[in-house]
Design goal:
Radius of gyration of chain A: 20 Å
Structural class of chain B: alpha+beta
Oligomer: heterodimer
Helix content of chain A: over 70%
Helix content of chain B: 40-55%
Number of helices of chain B: 6
Distance between the termini of chain B: 104 Å
Strand order of the largest sheet of chain B: 1-2-3-4-7-6-5
Structural class of chain A: mainly alpha
Shape of chain B: elongated
Radius of gyration of chain B: 46 Å
Order of helices and strands of chain A: HHHHHHHHHH
Largest sheet of chain A: none
Chain lengths: ~180, ~250
Amino acid sequence: MTTPNKRAYFEHVFLPHLDAAYNLARWLTRSEQDAEDIVQEAYLRAFKYFDGFRGTDSRSWLLAIVRNTCFTWKQHELSRELTIPFEEDAYSDVGESGNPEELLMQSISRQELKEALEALPTQFREIIVLRELEDLSYKEIAAITHLPLGTVMSRLARARKRLQHALTGQKSSEKLAEEGGVK
Amino acid sequence: MNCHAVKDLLHAYLDEELDTATTGEVKQHLRTCPACSQAYTSLRALQQVLHTNNLSLPAPASLRERVQLAVYQEDQVPFFQRSVRFWLSALVAILVLTVLIFTQFFASSSYNTLTQQVLASHIHALQQKHLVDVSSSDQHAIKPWFDGKLAYSPPIVDLAAEGFPLVGGRLDYLDRQSVATLVYQHNQHVITLFLWPAQGTEGITLQTLQGYHLCSWTRSGMTYWATSDVDISQLHQFVILLQQKVAT
């Protein structure tokens, strides 16, 4: 029998993570409507399984549920996306060419950044969101995604490389076009 | 530390995931290596642009209420379901218990009561000091006494040589019929043997009730009940001897 105390306690522990839950769901599904539905569903599941929660990291526990809910929600769509190949080896490491990437980076608009992030394949997008937007540690990310620590690190490195290429590559071609126009 | 090693550690260095010693080593290398330093600067720029652009999307105000309402509803319904489930299982338990009690009741009326009847008959005869209606140690004298009194002729066995002399016979009423009762003696103890025609599973059943031992078995269309306060081993011996002699 659940008591009002259980619900109150549950809310006390988990409602503070509402924004984090919504943020993750929103970036994973790229849909605000889906994100809302998923967050509600995730909280219901968390409430149902609350008795089994023995850990101390409620945020990671909840975000893992949010993540799982996202994947079962739109399994069809997401699995389609993951099959798109990407020739990573064709790209050299950014930074060795000597271009002032940091200047390029600073000139990037929020919209461009948002689009670049949304364009990333899901597994890279989620790791950027968890690390850079949610400020989670490698250990917490590993717990949420059920990936080994090594995979978390390598996936993060690849995700950052992709994002850099997506942003600076775009900027480089724009700059060249600009310079071409001035002349 | 060389560039190759630093390259692998650059992300962890940026995210402050390295231990103090390794952090120091990477820092030292970055001071002296322009290529790695460049790579690190690019990474940091990416991180900063992600941080400064407020890409974290806060939940809409209505979502909090929506979640709270959903949890509240979930809290209500399961209670009801659990209540129904509880009462259903309680009902099933009561039903099962009732069935068990009834079957026990009916079972006892056909078997357990018989045990009690047999024992009661044995004890009553002892109390009344009226063990037999026909007194003889000779089986040939007892057998004709049963003629006309029963629908069957009971097999009577002489076990005097084995230590179980016959005392006599009488009639009793057990399991809704008249039955032949033979009384044997062993030392100072009385062994009462009841027998009547019946079908049943072969095999000996031993029971002890109120300190008395009861042994029952069915063989060749006859049911036998022997009861006494002798040691169970002696009663068992009596039964074995009896079975052997009846078979011959």
